[in-house]
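Sequence, please.
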């Protein structure tokens, strides 16, 4: 009987020792990861590779512990980087240009491109068969913040396709994070969005 009790005690000690070693190693792994806070301007399909890498642990494999924060609007992302609330910001380059041109000694630096094209969708309130950009004439479009990359890209696309900006109304007064909600509330015929989550 004594041998059985001693065997059980030794077994429990062995199991506890293994658990202790595993927990200790996990804590060491966490301590060796470099924490990086990342602000993204929008949660969008165009950043899908990043989401897959986060989900699959690829950043941790490289020694990085990524904290991803949704920070709608390039102006807000840039403010978060400048205030050191985050380490890296994903947004259009326009905000860094505005900060630099304002003469600030502390400015952000663009160091990588994530997408080759603008990731905004043009969403219509009503179904339009065989849509053409000419269908925007006389319409009200929530375009995004004036001077923001999505809005500037939208205007550039219209001009490149021979659409005069005076032929439609482009609302640039709506904050980036409020565009979908404003459209849902009944404002506008069209809206430019990064995510197609707006439904009637």
């Amino acid at each position: 009987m004594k041998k059985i009790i001693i065997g059980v005690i030794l077994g429990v000690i062995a199991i506890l020792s293994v658990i202790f070693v595993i927990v200790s190693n996990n804590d060491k792994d966490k301590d060796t990861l470099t924490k990086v806070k990342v602000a993204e301007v929008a949660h969008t399909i165009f950043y899908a590779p990043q989401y897959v890498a986060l989900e699959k642990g690829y950043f941790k494999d490289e020694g990085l512990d990524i904290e991803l924060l949704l920070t709608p609007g390039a102006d807000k992302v840039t403010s978060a980087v400048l205030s050191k609330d985050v380490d890296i910001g994903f947004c259009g380059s326009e905000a860094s240009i505005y900060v630099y041109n304002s003469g600030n000694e502390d400015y952000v630096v663009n160091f990588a491109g994530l997408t080759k094209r603008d990731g905004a969708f043009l969403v219509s309130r009503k179904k339009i068969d065989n849509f053409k950009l000419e269908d925007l004439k006389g319409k009200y479009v929530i375009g995004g913040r004036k001077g923001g990359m999505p809005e500037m890209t939208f205007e550039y696309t219209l001009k490149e396709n021979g659409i005069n900006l005076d032929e439609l109304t482009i609302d640039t007064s709506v904050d980036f994070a409020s565009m979908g909600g404003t459209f849902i509330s009944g404002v506008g015929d069209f809206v430019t969005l990064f995510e197609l989550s707006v439904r009637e």
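The mean pLDDT is 81.
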